[in-house]
Amino acid sequence: AGSKLREVFDKINNLLSGKPVQTEGQMVSVTQHPQGLEFVCYKLAEKFVRHGEGEVSFHRDSAFPIAVVLSGIWELHPRVGDIFLAHLHKKCPYSVPFYPARKEGTSMEEYQRMLGYEVHDSKVEEQDHFLKRMSGMIRLYAAIIQLRWPYGNKQGAHPHGLSYGWRWLAQMLNLEPLADVTAMLLLDFLEVCGNALMKQYGIQFWKTMFFIQKSYIPRIEAVTSSGQMGCLSRLKNFVQKCLQAEEIPLPKGILTPSFWRT
């Protein structure tokens, strides 16, 4: 509910503003320790990224309520946003976007960690689980760049707005595609913020969609084996439908004005 989200936002904002906040039966304040504020910014940013790789990867619509709170906090407390990006880029290098290359002397285990895989006791997580986590984080990022906290002053610019999404898309399309990962990330990104990018960039956006259909999808196909076609097929269908309709649908779960009255 919108009222519940406001409570969550106010509590986080009060904590970061140095006001005493009640949690688990006791009052806490960042002023109780010289590094209190820095610690809270770090842990909070880390927690938002965890929401992306956990909550959002399983419940895709949850990207929007989480993102709108972070967007508002980022506006008032830029340090949280900076640290959030650092955590996000480390956990999901594709959010830069960046495909790390394996350097000489780097062990396979270390390289897999650089690519975003979780490695425990030399065991690498399964591909499906890895893709799900990356998908959740990209969806959260794509939601953040288009949302403003509705109760802010809205005087200044969004601290990390749509221009960053436009840049992400352009840089992504300049990278050589990877099997599995590239098709999934592009589809996630376009599903979540394609509508907002279309409204903002108009004809330039549609030129990009044509480029994806005519040039980039064939390049993804060239590196994709027959067993990895699922996501690529979904991306193909999505782009084709949007170009035919000359419209990108609003993402599922977007927060409507009526949500804030709940």
Automatic annotation (TrEMBL):
Keywords: Coiled coil, Cytoplasm, mRNA transport, Nuclear pore complex, Nucleus, Protein transport, Translocation, Transport. Its main location: cytoplasm. GO terms for molecular function: inositol hexakisphosphate binding; phospholipid binding; translation initiation factor binding. InterPro entries: GLE1, GLE1-like_sf. One of its GO terms (cellular component) is nuclear pore cytoplasmic filaments. One of its GO terms (biological process) is poly(A)+ mRNA export from nucleus. It is found in: Cytoplasm; Nucleus, Nuclear pore complex. Belongs to the GLE1 family. Required for the export of mRNAs containing poly(A) tails from the nucleus into the cytoplasm. May be involved in the terminal step of the mRNA transport through the nuclear pore complex (NPC). This is mRNA export factor GLE1. It comes from Lanius ludovicianus (Loggerhead shrike). The lineage of its organism: Eukaryota, Metazoa, Chordata, Craniata, Vertebrata. The gene is Gle1.
